[in-house]
Structures
1.
Amino acid sequence: MPKKPVILIAVLAISIFALIQLGSSAVGYSVFKGEAQDSYKQGDYVTAYAKLEGAKIKSADEDFYNRTALLAAIQEEYDSYQSMMQIGKTEMALDCLIRGVGRCDNHAEKAEEYGVTAEVDELKNQMTQTLTDTFGVDEQQALEVYGQRDRTDYTLELKKILKASGME
């Protein structure tokens, strides 16, 4: 068999394979990004972040990724609260809400930088309202507990709240 046709066929096959790979990765990224944007618009930041997780984020999408990551880190605390309440782990549920309110407070500057202050405030209000309704704790109390640096003191504060709310 002549070498030239074999080499040409091999180069053509490699070129076609490379073109298919490039096309499928570009289409795949667009699909993940579109799904993430849809979830984000619906206020499901955890799902939006999960759609982007592991993808190589393009520089044009870094702002969207940063906004999504920040909001997902906060929202996952509320989601965890709901899961813990469903299985009767009230101390862990309370811990999730307090951490969520604390994260909102800690990330206020980043939220402003990323332009998601309204979304963070909405999540914070949701968690604060739940804290008040379920455990009788206001935002200031939650931040004081969150500020405890000693883990034992933190846990004792959680237990005091649970006892005061009749959920111990």
Note: The mean pLDDT is 88.
2.
Amino acid sequence: MYWNLASDFWALATNDSGVTGKSLLRSSARFAFANTSMLDGYYRNGSMSAPLDPAYHVFQSHLGAFGSVDLRHVPCPASLATLVRDVHEALRSVLANTTDIHGSYTAQTAYLELVTMQGLVAVPSSLDASSQFSAGSNLLCHAPLSSFNLSSGLPSYFGVAVGCNVVFGEWVYVMKDQILFALLASGIALAPTLHIPSTCKVEAVSPSDCRAMLTSISAFLHTYFAPAYLQALRAQAQRVQGDVNALSVDLATYLQDASTSEISLFHQRILDDADVPMQLTGWTNLYDWVLGFREVVAFEADNASLTVMSTAYTSTTFAASAAEVPINVATYLRVFCQYISLLLLVLSLVAMSYTVQNRFTSEGFNLFEVNRVGGMVWIGRPMLFLRSVTALCILSTATLQLQLAGKATTLDPARQDVSPFLAICTKVLAAGELGWLVYIADDICMVITQQYTASYTFKSALLAWAIAAMLSLIAPVTHSVDLELRCAVDVTDYQAVCSSGHVVIGSLSRLLLLVAIALGSSVSMYLHDRLRYTLPPPTEKPSYLLSCGAKYLFEKTGWVHDCVYHVDVASAALTGLLTWRKDDVIYVFDVKTWRVYTIHTTASMQKGTQRELRLHGALPLVE
């Protein structure tokens, strides 16, 4: 509606514009608009036709000349959005938490049984349907061919999908949350018997349905909301009313006198204290404004300005695409963890079978090194590091579950599917997964720690486990939810990208703290044992068949003969040595180098004291 600079250039360059070749300088004798108005330009380019439509004439005389009208989008006040949020939170709390002695959600049942009407059609009290008609409520359109009877309500306001030649009624299609909010904000709920009759008098279509609806919802509010809370919300709404009226938000329509057919512009505040019965409809419109179903536009011209609300827009709802939900990484990590657990289980069964085959003469303490030795050899540090990262992520994630409360859903930070005792046990066991990072750190540092490895590694793992468990129980990770609709134009007139909010369940600081706990436990326990004890280096001959973990973590007491370490076949399997004995020949398959070795046992290897008879079934590392 504004004649911009581009229109000036068009007019000066177009032959039939009436201002061809003239100047845009007001001081010039050839000033383009000295004797020509912008309305004449609209006539010439076909944007408007002469004579001017009666509605357009009223618009121009009230606001200002066409071509000088600015349209400004008005955002809703923050106080209004806060009020809607507070009512939503209070209602959701009542619906999700109100139960009887049998566990039934009584508030939900009452809410679903509320009486509502299809549409609320209110007409301002000062309008007289017997002597006045409406010539349209769309300020962007001309007067319709036929007038609109006010006994059917007001015509629809302006909107992106509202045509100028087809006139529909401006109905408020009732939603339960919407009308409940309007009752609370308007104060009707405080004195329903006093306010409901007068409020429903302005209902044009069905006053009886209006009274039934307001009575039903008022009874619900008095049943499940404390009177003090209703009064507090009303006081908050009165402050919001001041903020809304400061923006001069009006409802407007063109009126046509039934006797003279003269058209005039009628407008009043959407929350007008002089028309209290209309405030219920006003609050429903404001509710729609906050939720994005309506918008407010200010028409600002030379003579005056008018701020009006649009008609209600229909929303499009659809389910999120499953392909856009980021679950691939979690799926892969879960499969990796399952693979590692399965491989460790198979390795344990292999070691157990060797133990049975060797008549339980294996070193039992070595079987406790399945994770440290077997995991490093058979799985490798990269895969175990991946499992440790998975454990760190789980320990750094807050619990936030979608729970069903009757017919409502809630986000609950506590697990409801298990007992508190089992939840504590789960946290303690999950904290033990931090040990994978400790194992990797200890394995890498064995080149430094050497003979002190067996002394401190068990302590460091227990210390990290205990600290992580206490941390999870005493100071669990908390979530944060920020619900705020934010939109940005990605492609003008084509695409807007919106974010409804952020749900944060992970904590980077907790993850880094757990890493520090794991590494700090290893370093502190090593320094403790290094300063407190003096341990001699190994005396047996070194063997290239043993992994570093097996060299320093396996129990060697009673397994060394003539400076040769004899590793039992079950422990050998943990360090990647699969053996098969044929008479005096031992065939060894080393999975670390993918080679097969043959070891011939001599008579000197087989003789010994009664204590050393178990060495006969062991693998001598003679190389």
Note: The first strand starts at residue 70 and ends at 74.
3.
Amino acid sequence: MIWLDLIEARVDSAEPAVVTDDGVWTWRELLARSGGGVEFLDSIGAPAGHPVVALLTSRPMSFALTIGAAASDRALAPLGPRLTVSELVPCVEALPGEVIVTEAEFEALAREVAARTGRRVAVLPDLPASGWRRDATIGADRPAAILHTSGTTGIPKAVAYTEGRLVARVKVNSQLVDLGPGAV
């Protein structure tokens, strides 16, 4: 079992998946929009098998893109758009890939980082609800997301959260905090 299996099991669920001050997205809507995320990544030429750097905040579109990226073997590498150019450049340079995805309000920052790292910039649109899509060949060893940690050195380091490791983490965390149906 991989993390995407846990996600896919909810493809027809009307239960809440993302709750914000602006409203609620069901699992059905989140996963339909994650299909829009796959289409967006296809349209900007983000190659499968490479991470996609993303300057995003915690918005529903960001969650949909994260799932769509993992489902198409293009793990999202989210970075805080409140970081400085000098903090972002080493993180971006250390990752393979061609594009930086950003929210519109951080486009100027993304363009400056892209100019220093040889990347292109793509602004994340409102993702259409195009249906759940998943690359069935993704295994437990593939990254679901790339996170950054400074660990003991204080220097940011990319850490791949693999599908297998993430499914184990989700199971443990959901038991520790008693997450289950209706626990929103």
Note: The chain has a mean pLDDT of 92.
